[in-house]
TrEMBL record:
InterPro entries: DUF883_C, DUF883_N, YqjD/ElaB. It comes from the Bacteria. The keyword Heme does not apply. Residues 14-64, 77-105 form the DUF883 domain. This is DUF883 domain-containing protein. It holds the Pfam family DUF883_C. It is a single-pass membrane protein. The lineage of its organism: Bacteria, Pseudomonadati, Pseudomonadota, Betaproteobacteria, Burkholderiales. It is found in: Cell inner membrane. It comes from Paraburkholderia piptadeniae. One of its GO terms (cellular component) is plasma membrane.
Amino acid sequence: MTETTEQLALGRQKIVEDLRVLLTDSEEMLRLAATVPGEGLDSLRERLRTHVDTLQAALGGAQTSAHRRYRSATVQTERYVRQNPWQSLGIAAGVGFALGLLASR
């Protein structure tokens, strides 16, 4: 995995974590707003509920997409290893050697 790919994966993971925090905070605000009386708060509650529902759907979609990509990468990797066992072994040995060199420094 290249450095750019790793950074993108970490960025996506951070976004998903931030969405979870935002969702939790929004649900808590909605729960607290339900106990406060007022006419203007009714529209605020509705907008907040809409945003929470949208965020839940987006987070579910992101998780589904990530799971689908993970499964696809797993299947493709397994297929490559089965079709090219010697090349896979050579790549693994090379990576192991490079990591050993880095670890010994």
